[in-house]
Amino acid sequence: MSLFYISRNYKSSNNAASKPKTDCEVVMAKNGFKNLGFKQTTHASSAIGAIISFFGITKGLLWLPRKSVLAMQYPLSKFYGYVTNVARIKGCKVILIVHDVKTLMGKTKNIKKEMQKFSKADVLIVHNDEMKKWFITNGYNGKIVPLYLFDYMSFDTSLETGLIKKNEKYEIVFAGGLGKEKSAFIYEMDNFKNRNFALKLYGNGFQKNEVNSENSVIKYQGVFSPDEVVKKIKGNFGLVWNGNSVEECAGDFGKYLLYNNPHKTSLYILCGLPILVWKKAAIAKFITSNKLGIAINTLEEVDEKLRNLSTEEYKEMTDNVAETREKIMEGGFLSEALKKALQMV
Protein backbone atom coordinates (compact mmCIF):
# COMPACT_ATOMS: atom_id res chain seq x y z
CA MET A 1 0.00 0.00 0.00
CA SER A 2 1.50 3.35 -1.12
CA LEU A 3 1.06 6.07 1.53
CA PHE A 4 1.29 9.82 0.91
CA TYR A 5 0.58 13.28 2.28
CA ILE A 6 1.14 16.73 0.81
CA SER A 7 2.83 19.34 3.00
CA ARG A 8 2.08 23.05 2.78
CA ASN A 9 2.89 26.36 4.44
CA TYR A 10 1.80 26.73 8.08
CA LYS A 11 1.75 30.35 9.19
CA SER A 12 4.19 30.84 12.07
CA SER A 13 3.01 32.76 15.13
CA ASN A 14 3.29 32.83 18.91
CA ASN A 15 0.04 30.92 19.33
CA ALA A 16 -0.05 27.17 18.91
CA ALA A 17 -2.50 27.12 15.98
CA SER A 18 -0.10 25.42 13.54
CA LYS A 19 1.68 23.16 16.01
CA PRO A 20 -0.83 20.23 15.85
CA LYS A 21 -0.69 20.24 12.05
CA THR A 22 3.08 20.41 11.73
CA ASP A 23 3.37 17.65 14.34
CA CYS A 24 0.91 15.50 12.39
CA GLU A 25 3.18 15.66 9.35
CA VAL A 26 6.12 14.47 11.45
CA VAL A 27 4.06 11.53 12.74
CA MET A 28 2.79 10.66 9.27
CA ALA A 29 6.38 10.54 8.00
CA LYS A 30 7.31 8.26 10.93
CA ASN A 31 4.53 5.91 9.86
CA GLY A 32 5.65 5.51 6.26
CA PHE A 33 3.73 8.34 4.58
CA LYS A 34 5.80 10.18 1.95
CA ASN A 35 5.47 13.92 1.29
CA LEU A 36 4.72 14.63 -2.38
CA GLY A 37 4.66 18.43 -2.02
CA PHE A 38 7.29 20.99 -1.14
CA LYS A 39 9.13 20.76 2.15
CA GLN A 40 7.05 22.06 5.09
CA THR A 41 7.35 25.84 5.49
CA THR A 42 6.23 28.32 8.16
CA HIS A 43 6.19 31.62 6.27
CA ALA A 44 4.45 34.35 8.29
CA SER A 45 2.88 36.11 5.27
CA SER A 46 -0.59 34.78 4.43
CA ALA A 47 -0.29 35.80 0.76
CA ILE A 48 3.15 34.23 0.22
CA GLY A 49 2.11 31.20 2.28
CA ALA A 50 -0.97 30.67 0.07
CA ILE A 51 1.17 30.80 -3.09
CA ILE A 52 3.69 28.31 -1.65
CA SER A 53 0.85 26.02 -0.57
CA PHE A 54 -0.92 26.18 -3.96
CA PHE A 55 2.15 25.25 -5.98
CA GLY A 56 3.28 22.65 -3.45
CA ILE A 57 -0.16 21.02 -3.40
CA THR A 58 -0.37 21.11 -7.21
CA LYS A 59 3.03 19.40 -7.46
CA GLY A 60 1.90 16.78 -4.95
CA LEU A 61 -1.34 16.06 -6.81
CA LEU A 62 0.51 15.67 -10.12
CA TRP A 63 2.85 13.12 -8.51
CA LEU A 64 0.11 11.33 -6.55
CA PRO A 65 -0.05 7.72 -7.86
CA ARG A 66 -3.38 6.21 -8.81
CA LYS A 67 -5.12 4.02 -6.21
CA SER A 68 -2.80 5.06 -3.38
CA VAL A 69 -3.68 6.32 0.13
CA LEU A 70 -3.62 10.06 0.80
CA ALA A 71 -3.67 11.38 4.38
CA MET A 72 -5.02 14.92 4.70
CA GLN A 73 -5.67 17.39 7.49
CA TYR A 74 -8.88 19.39 7.94
CA PRO A 75 -9.59 22.30 7.67
CA LEU A 76 -7.67 22.97 4.47
CA SER A 77 -9.63 26.15 3.58
CA LYS A 78 -9.55 26.99 -0.12
CA PHE A 79 -7.61 23.88 -1.20
CA TYR A 80 -9.85 21.16 0.27
CA GLY A 81 -12.10 20.60 -2.74
CA TYR A 82 -9.14 20.78 -5.12
CA VAL A 83 -7.23 18.03 -3.29
CA THR A 84 -10.16 15.69 -2.62
CA ASN A 85 -11.52 15.96 -6.18
CA VAL A 86 -8.15 15.07 -7.74
CA ALA A 87 -7.69 12.23 -5.23
CA ARG A 88 -11.12 10.85 -6.21
CA ILE A 89 -10.35 11.10 -9.96
CA LYS A 90 -7.17 9.09 -9.32
CA GLY A 91 -9.08 6.45 -7.34
CA CYS A 92 -7.21 7.15 -4.11
CA LYS A 93 -8.41 6.42 -0.58
CA VAL A 94 -8.50 9.48 1.70
CA ILE A 95 -7.76 9.46 5.44
CA LEU A 96 -8.78 12.79 6.97
CA ILE A 97 -7.31 13.99 10.28
CA VAL A 98 -9.89 16.38 11.75
CA HIS A 99 -8.48 19.27 13.77
CA ASP A 100 -11.55 21.51 13.97
CA VAL A 101 -15.21 21.27 12.96
CA LYS A 102 -16.53 24.71 12.02
CA THR A 103 -20.14 23.78 12.76
CA LEU A 104 -19.26 22.73 16.31
CA MET A 105 -17.20 25.88 16.81
CA GLY A 106 -20.18 28.05 15.88
CA LYS A 107 -18.39 29.42 12.79
CA THR A 108 -21.09 28.09 10.44
CA LYS A 109 -24.63 26.79 10.92
CA ASN A 110 -24.70 24.81 7.67
CA ILE A 111 -24.07 21.28 8.96
CA LYS A 112 -25.12 19.71 5.66
CA LYS A 113 -22.54 21.67 3.67
CA GLU A 114 -19.69 20.79 6.01
CA MET A 115 -20.80 17.16 6.16
CA GLN A 116 -20.59 17.02 2.35
CA LYS A 117 -16.91 17.91 2.68
CA PHE A 118 -16.31 15.17 5.24
CA SER A 119 -18.11 12.64 3.04
CA LYS A 120 -15.27 12.93 0.52
CA ALA A 121 -13.02 11.05 2.99
CA ASP A 122 -13.03 7.26 3.42
CA VAL A 123 -11.86 7.37 7.06
CA LEU A 124 -12.02 10.20 9.56
CA ILE A 125 -9.64 10.48 12.51
CA VAL A 126 -11.64 12.55 15.01
CA HIS A 127 -10.88 13.82 18.50
CA ASN A 128 -12.82 11.37 20.68
CA ASP A 129 -15.92 9.19 21.08
CA GLU A 130 -18.24 12.18 21.61
CA MET A 131 -17.14 13.74 18.33
CA LYS A 132 -17.52 10.33 16.64
CA LYS A 133 -21.15 10.14 17.87
CA TRP A 134 -21.79 13.64 16.52
CA PHE A 135 -20.54 12.65 13.05
CA ILE A 136 -22.69 9.51 12.97
CA THR A 137 -25.77 11.43 14.19
CA ASN A 138 -25.29 14.04 11.47
CA GLY A 139 -25.08 11.54 8.63
CA TYR A 140 -21.44 10.65 8.07
CA ASN A 141 -21.40 7.11 6.64
CA GLY A 142 -17.66 6.41 6.38
CA LYS A 143 -15.31 4.82 8.90
CA ILE A 144 -14.28 6.78 12.03
CA VAL A 145 -11.29 6.38 14.35
CA PRO A 146 -11.05 8.35 17.64
CA LEU A 147 -7.66 9.92 18.43
CA TYR A 148 -8.22 10.53 22.21
CA LEU A 149 -5.28 12.93 22.64
CA PHE A 150 -3.25 15.11 20.28
CA ASP A 151 0.45 14.44 20.21
CA TYR A 152 2.85 17.26 21.10
CA MET A 153 6.21 16.46 19.53
CA SER A 154 9.26 17.52 21.51
CA PHE A 155 12.87 16.46 21.63
CA ASP A 156 13.46 17.91 25.09
CA THR A 157 13.08 14.87 27.32
CA SER A 158 13.91 16.70 30.57
CA LEU A 159 11.06 17.17 33.01
CA GLU A 160 11.04 19.06 36.27
CA THR A 161 8.07 18.37 38.53
CA GLY A 162 8.02 19.17 42.21
CA LEU A 163 5.50 17.61 44.54
CA ILE A 164 3.79 20.42 46.39
CA LYS A 165 3.88 20.42 50.18
CA LYS A 166 0.69 20.61 52.18
CA ASN A 167 -0.53 24.16 53.01
CA GLU A 168 1.37 25.63 50.09
CA LYS A 169 -0.56 27.35 47.30
CA TYR A 170 -1.14 25.27 44.20
CA GLU A 171 -0.10 26.94 40.94
CA ILE A 172 -2.70 26.44 38.19
CA VAL A 173 -1.54 27.05 34.63
CA PHE A 174 -3.80 28.34 31.86
CA ALA A 175 -2.31 28.62 28.36
CA GLY A 176 -4.10 30.02 25.30
CA GLY A 177 -6.04 33.07 24.17
CA LEU A 178 -6.58 35.36 27.15
CA GLY A 179 -9.00 37.83 25.56
CA LYS A 180 -12.49 38.28 27.00
CA GLU A 181 -14.21 36.80 23.93
CA LYS A 182 -12.65 33.39 24.52
CA SER A 183 -11.58 33.42 28.17
CA ALA A 184 -13.69 35.95 30.07
CA PHE A 185 -13.91 33.50 33.00
CA ILE A 186 -10.30 34.30 33.96
CA TYR A 187 -11.20 37.79 35.14
CA GLU A 188 -13.96 36.49 37.44
CA MET A 189 -11.70 34.23 39.50
CA ASP A 190 -10.57 37.01 41.85
CA ASN A 191 -14.18 37.22 43.06
CA PHE A 192 -14.12 33.77 44.65
CA LYS A 193 -14.42 33.64 48.42
CA ASN A 194 -11.93 30.77 48.69
CA ARG A 195 -8.94 31.03 46.39
CA ASN A 196 -5.89 29.51 47.94
CA PHE A 197 -4.16 29.10 44.57
CA ALA A 198 -2.32 31.13 41.95
CA LEU A 199 -3.52 31.24 38.32
CA LYS A 200 -0.52 31.53 35.99
CA LEU A 201 -1.42 32.77 32.50
CA TYR A 202 0.53 32.16 29.28
CA GLY A 203 -0.66 33.59 25.96
CA ASN A 204 -1.93 36.49 23.87
CA GLY A 205 -4.62 39.02 24.71
CA PHE A 206 -4.13 39.47 28.48
CA GLN A 207 -6.47 42.19 29.81
CA LYS A 208 -4.26 43.86 32.40
CA ASN A 209 -6.85 46.56 33.18
CA GLU A 210 -9.33 43.86 34.28
CA VAL A 211 -7.05 42.71 37.11
CA ASN A 212 -6.58 44.34 40.48
CA SER A 213 -2.89 43.63 41.00
CA GLU A 214 -3.22 43.77 44.77
CA ASN A 215 -4.12 40.39 46.21
CA SER A 216 -4.99 38.91 42.79
CA VAL A 217 -4.73 35.17 42.08
CA ILE A 218 -3.82 36.05 38.47
CA LYS A 219 -0.13 36.03 37.58
CA TYR A 220 0.57 36.85 33.91
CA GLN A 221 3.70 35.10 32.65
CA GLY A 222 3.94 36.34 29.04
CA VAL A 223 3.53 35.03 25.50
CA PHE A 224 5.87 32.47 23.95
CA SER A 225 6.15 30.34 20.83
CA PRO A 226 4.80 26.73 21.01
CA ASP A 227 8.32 25.35 21.43
CA GLU A 228 9.42 28.01 23.93
CA VAL A 229 6.37 27.78 26.17
CA VAL A 230 7.15 24.16 27.06
CA LYS A 231 10.32 25.38 28.80
CA LYS A 232 8.58 28.33 30.47
CA ILE A 233 5.53 26.65 32.02
CA LYS A 234 5.90 25.83 35.69
CA GLY A 235 3.04 24.82 37.97
CA ASN A 236 1.04 22.00 39.55
CA PHE A 237 -2.06 21.70 37.33
CA GLY A 238 -3.10 22.71 33.82
CA LEU A 239 -6.61 24.15 33.44
CA VAL A 240 -8.87 23.12 30.54
CA TRP A 241 -11.75 25.63 30.52
CA ASN A 242 -13.17 28.09 28.00
CA GLY A 243 -15.89 30.69 27.69
CA ASN A 244 -17.44 33.52 29.63
CA SER A 245 -18.60 31.77 32.81
CA VAL A 246 -17.01 30.28 35.93
CA GLU A 247 -20.14 28.12 36.45
CA GLU A 248 -19.77 26.15 33.21
CA CYS A 249 -18.01 26.31 29.87
CA ALA A 250 -20.47 28.61 28.07
CA GLY A 251 -20.58 30.39 24.70
CA ASP A 252 -19.36 28.92 21.39
CA PHE A 253 -15.81 28.43 22.68
CA GLY A 254 -17.04 26.83 25.89
CA LYS A 255 -19.56 24.51 24.23
CA TYR A 256 -16.90 23.29 21.82
CA LEU A 257 -15.34 21.48 24.80
CA LEU A 258 -18.32 19.10 24.69
CA TYR A 259 -16.73 17.62 21.55
CA ASN A 260 -13.08 18.53 21.10
CA ASN A 261 -9.69 17.61 22.54
CA PRO A 262 -8.06 20.98 23.33
CA HIS A 263 -4.42 20.94 22.23
CA LYS A 264 -3.48 22.69 25.47
CA THR A 265 -4.26 19.42 27.29
CA SER A 266 -1.31 17.84 25.50
CA LEU A 267 0.86 20.86 26.25
CA TYR A 268 0.13 20.54 29.98
CA ILE A 269 0.93 16.83 29.93
CA LEU A 270 4.17 17.53 28.07
CA CYS A 271 5.02 19.93 30.92
CA GLY A 272 4.27 17.21 33.49
CA LEU A 273 1.08 18.83 34.78
CA PRO A 274 -2.04 16.91 35.84
CA ILE A 275 -5.25 18.36 34.38
CA LEU A 276 -8.14 20.32 35.90
CA VAL A 277 -11.03 19.97 33.44
CA TRP A 278 -14.73 20.77 33.17
CA LYS A 279 -16.65 17.57 34.04
CA LYS A 280 -18.86 17.81 30.93
CA ALA A 281 -15.94 18.27 28.52
CA ALA A 282 -15.49 15.40 26.05
CA ILE A 283 -11.90 14.91 27.17
CA ALA A 284 -12.84 14.67 30.88
CA LYS A 285 -13.64 10.95 30.61
CA PHE A 286 -10.16 10.22 29.22
CA ILE A 287 -8.51 12.34 31.92
CA THR A 288 -10.36 10.76 34.86
CA SER A 289 -10.32 7.15 33.62
CA ASN A 290 -6.54 7.36 33.13
CA LYS A 291 -6.09 9.22 36.45
CA LEU A 292 -4.41 12.16 34.75
CA GLY A 293 -6.26 14.84 36.72
CA ILE A 294 -9.49 16.07 38.29
CA ALA A 295 -12.89 16.88 36.74
CA ILE A 296 -14.84 19.83 38.17
CA ASN A 297 -18.38 21.16 37.69
CA THR A 298 -17.53 24.82 38.37
CA LEU A 299 -14.34 26.79 38.89
CA GLU A 300 -15.44 27.66 42.42
CA GLU A 301 -14.86 23.98 43.29
CA VAL A 302 -11.13 24.29 42.56
CA ASP A 303 -10.09 25.50 46.02
CA GLU A 304 -11.91 22.70 47.84
CA LYS A 305 -10.76 19.98 45.41
CA LEU A 306 -7.13 20.99 45.83
CA ARG A 307 -7.40 21.39 49.59
CA ASN A 308 -8.70 17.83 49.92
CA LEU A 309 -6.09 16.33 47.59
CA SER A 310 -3.56 14.11 49.35
CA THR A 311 0.14 14.04 48.48
CA GLU A 312 -0.27 10.37 47.44
CA GLU A 313 -3.15 11.17 45.08
CA TYR A 314 -1.19 14.01 43.47
CA LYS A 315 1.86 11.77 43.04
CA GLU A 316 -0.25 9.09 41.34
CA MET A 317 -1.50 11.69 38.86
CA THR A 318 1.98 13.03 38.10
CA ASP A 319 3.27 9.46 37.58
CA ASN A 320 0.48 8.76 35.09
CA VAL A 321 1.09 12.09 33.35
CA ALA A 322 4.79 11.23 32.98
CA GLU A 323 3.88 7.93 31.29
CA THR A 324 1.39 9.59 28.91
CA ARG A 325 3.96 12.32 28.22
CA GLU A 326 6.31 9.77 26.67
CA LYS A 327 3.56 8.69 24.27
CA ILE A 328 2.58 12.18 23.07
CA MET A 329 6.24 13.18 22.62
CA GLU A 330 6.75 10.25 20.25
CA GLY A 331 3.52 10.73 18.28
CA GLY A 332 2.01 7.61 19.82
CA PHE A 333 -1.67 8.60 19.69
CA LEU A 334 -1.76 9.53 16.00
CA SER A 335 0.43 6.53 15.13
CA GLU A 336 -2.17 4.20 16.68
CA ALA A 337 -5.03 6.00 14.92
CA LEU A 338 -3.29 5.87 11.53
CA LYS A 339 -2.68 2.13 11.87
CA LYS A 340 -6.38 1.57 12.62
CA ALA A 341 -7.39 3.83 9.70
CA LEU A 342 -5.14 1.92 7.29
CA GLN A 343 -6.77 -1.36 8.31
CA MET A 344 -10.13 0.18 7.36
CA VAL A 345 -9.17 1.39 3.86
Task: Briefly summarize what is shown.
The chain has 345 residues and is of the alpha/beta class. It has helices spanning 19-30, 46-63, 80-89, 102-105, 111-118, 129-137, 180-183, 226-232, 251-255, 263-270, 284-289, 302-307, 311-329, 332-344, and strands spanning 3-5, 34-35, 69-74, 93-98, 123-126, 143-146, 170-175, 197-202, 218-222, 237-240, 275-278, 293-296. The protein starts with a strand and ends with a helix.
Word description of this protein:
By secondary structure, this protein is of the alpha/beta class. It folds into 2 domains: 3-151 and 330-344, Rossmann fold (3-Layer(aba) Sandwich); 170-328, 3-Layer(aba) Sandwich (Rossmann fold). It contains 14 helices and 12 strands. The strands form 2 sheets. The chain has a 6-stranded parallel β-sheet with strand order 2-1-3-4-5-6, sandwiched between helices. It is elongated, with a radius of gyration of 21 Å. It starts with a strand and ends with a helix.
* Total number of distinct structural domains: 2
The name of the CATH topology of the largest domain is: Rossmann fold
Distance between the termini: 10 Å
The largest sheet, given as strand count, sense and whether it forms a barrel, is: 6 strands, parallel
Number of helices: 14
Helix-and-strand structural type: alpha/beta
Mean pLDDT score: 92
Shape descriptor: elongated
